[in-house]
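=== RUN LOG ===
request id: a7f3
mode: sequence -> structure
chains: 1
length: 209
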Amino acid sequence: MNRKWIDEKCDMLSVKLGIFKPNPLEFYFEPTDEIYKKLESEEEKDIKHVANEISKHLDMRYVPNIKYDWGVKMDPEVAGQINFLKPMHDIQIPFFYVGKRYPLGRILAHEMTHAFLISKDIYLEDNNENEMLTDLGSIFIGLGKLLLNGISVALDENMQNEFILGYLSPELLAHSYIKIAAYRSINKSIMIKNLIPRIEKLLENTNGY
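=== RESULT ===
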């Protein structure tokens, strides 16, 4: 995908959702230290608490059920899945991610966006393209900080080996984040609040910042 695709899908989301949360001071779900402490606690009740806070931010009627699952089989870059067959939806997360606060935040942002978009009857027929739309949608509805902070997963303590989570490249995610902030007239200080340093650097290196 490229920036033209991003721009086209942003226009589509604008038509379907309008200006989501008109007040720019209320637009972002802020991944505070308290949120990240919950995500690294290793307790399901704490990740469910964060999911509940996200659902409040999105004004969702139902909160999907969140659970860690030994039996989930998926590529590492995918990391989570949501079952749409049940009324309340189940979000399953592999045990590999237990306690990994930044990747968990990204997984929750993506899967909760799935639930939000399907509630609005927004989806694309092609599954892979729909996953990319969901990453973009996370940014469009204010979950971009969670999504960007968890963009990669380290495979060792020294951060020497890592892989990228998600369906859009870091560069396209940064472009999307900057584009949507400009569309919402959100200033830089609000944009970078609660972003980790490497994501601030990514934004700085993106054209249009």
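=== NOTES ===
The radius of gyration is 16 Å.
Residues 3-204 form one domain.
=== END ===
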